[in-house]
User: Fold this.
Amino acid sequence: MSPHLPVTPDEIAAAAIEAVEAGAAIIHLHARDPETGRPDPRPELFLDFMPKIKDACDAVLNVSTGGGLGMTREERLRAAVATSPEMASLNVGSMNFGIFPMLEKYARGSTTGSRTSWR
Assistant:
């Protein structure tokens, strides 16, 4: 994990506020377990940093609805429902989990257009 990645609620709030000071108008927010740094969708974590950000700037706050493989829609929406942000992402699928059926086709050396094997 990068040492530059904000993990604790205070670090996330500070990084978001810095981004706004640098010109950002929308802040897309993810929460992390402050002990492990792993992504964590618990609403209480979002509630730890969102008020600090909202009080410090006028950026649009965008809560992630992305989640881990196997999470239900309700689990993914909990933070957005609990925090009522101005904006929330809508991830109907993810490319983060390495579920790429087409990869095998390219791995065997098939060609499409100018691309050949990725490996």
User: Anything to note?
Assistant: The CA atoms of residues 41 and 112 lie 38 Å apart.
